[in-house]
Specification:
It is a single chain. This protein is an all-beta fold. The chain has one domain. The chain is built from no helices and 9 strands. The strands form 2 sheets. A 5-stranded mixed barrel has the order 2-3-4-9-8. The two termini are 13 Å apart.
């Protein structure tokens, strides 16, 4: 893909009690009920538990993923992402992000 920018963010904390599972969630970041979720390539909406230190913040008309203090923009609505993690141990219908995240900005 000509002119593509790919950013790999490895600052995601473990976010998991003991270790980080090795599943991979790929798709597009979308707004869902006031937070950010991932619409997987199969058009399935996956609610994500973002790791400690990652917050969802408004930026203009969109929501973004930012670091704890909101100083570093990690990803935003419309970006394609690949997020490491696995099934949430508290709510198995959600994906718990941990490990690394690759972002392809919109």
């Amino acid at each position: 893909m000509a002119g593509a920018i790919v950013v790999s963010v490895s600052a995601l904390g473990s976010g998991c009690a003991v270790s980080c599972p090795t599943a991979l969630l790929a798709g597009t970041i979308v707004e869902h009920q006031g937070t950010l979720a991932v619409e997987s390539d199969g058009e399935r909406l996956v609610q994500v538990v973002w790791p400690e230190g990652v917050s969802v913040k408004p930026e203009g008309d969109y929501l973004i993923l930012a670091d704890w203090f909101g100083l570093h923009r990690m990803a935003a609505e419309g970006d394609r992402v690949e997020v490491g993690g696995g099934q949430d141990h508290i709510d198995p219908t959600r994906f718990r992000a941990c490990g690394s995240m690759t972002v392809r900005p919109l």
